[in-house]
Amino acid sequence: MINLTNRSYQKELLDNDDISFADIKQTMKELNTINKYLGGHAITISGVKALIENNATSGPICICEIGSGGGDNLKAIAAYCKSKNIAATFIGIDIKQECIDYAAQKYPELNATWIASDYRLADFGDQKPDIIFSSLFCHHFTNEELKFMLQWMKRKAQLGIFINDLHRHHFAYYSIKWMTGLFSKSFLSKNDGPLSVARSFTKTEWASIFKTAGIGGFSIHWRWAFRYLVVCKND
Length: 235
Known about the structure:
Elements: H1 21-37, H2 40-52, E1 61-66, H3 72-83, E2 88-94, H4 97-106, E3 112-116, E4 131-135, H5 143-156, E5 160-166, H6 170-183, H7 187-198, H8 203-212, E6 218-223, E7 227-233
Parallel strand pairs: 1-2, 1-4, 2-3, 4-5
Antiparallel strand pairs: 5-7, 6-7
């Protein structure tokens, strides 16, 4: 049995520069299916709801995702906002130009701005987003890199931030290994799916990362299927 006592820092294939976009596209399609049927999108929507309740904003609420990939998370949020008559605009930031182009072409109906950039270099000008979030993004980074990321997110968001990411657990590891082995058509998913779990977090680790970043007032919620939703409202 794999030792999951500590986070793995083995590099995922997806983080290599020589992976073709065709392979990335297949992986994004499969990830959207997983998010849809195993509750990933529902967790993301819960993060939005937690930050907008009891918060009146003038005009549409602006929601930004860093590491936005194929844009499926923003699409899910947009559908929720439409169902609740919540006016919203969206910003998707991804370092890969191909992902940004794909999302813009796939979801032209979204009131979205798509930015191909390292999130650290993104410039919002005078109009900061109300909410900044990430989904299945944080486990790609070291704890020290996450310290900067959390500080950046909190500084740039008006209402607050949230994170939807994996819980490092043996059941999650072997479940995704089994599922991708049987059903995935992506070699990236088969390799990176279990590795993503090995690179992910425990509740104690999330609390420590936020403490190291000097950020309080956060809440950590476990969600099926083996995810953590971490929400932090701005004062």
